[in-house]
Design goal:
Elements: E1 8-11, E2 15-27, E3 30-38, E4 45-49, H1 64-75
Antiparallel strand pairs: 1-2, 2-3, 3-4
């Protein structure tokens, strides 16, 4: 998954956030490229190393068409 500053993403078990920045994150003596995802004023921020974006289950939110399809499917059951 390619992330850009300003993208809205779903962070599993944490909720929906906005990619605020991309840059080096200092971990001990190393600086690794990472994204900072703002989860809102009450939930803080989530940092994810660039190399782990595809492994952590981040995804884009569902679009309106997909939501409408899900509601139609669920209401017909």
């Amino acid at each position: 998954m390619q992330l850009d500053v300003g993208d809205v993403v779903v962070v599993p078990s944490l909720g929906v956030g906005v990619v605020q920045s991309h840059g080096p994150l200092q971990v001990g003596d190393d600086a690794i490229p990472a994204y900072r995802i703002d989860l809102g004023s009450d939930d803080g921020a989530y940092w994810i190393p660039e190399a782990q974006v595809g492994e952590q289950g981040l995804r884009a939110p569902l679009d309106e068409e997909r939501i409408a399809h899900l509601w139609k499917t669920m209401s017909s059951q």
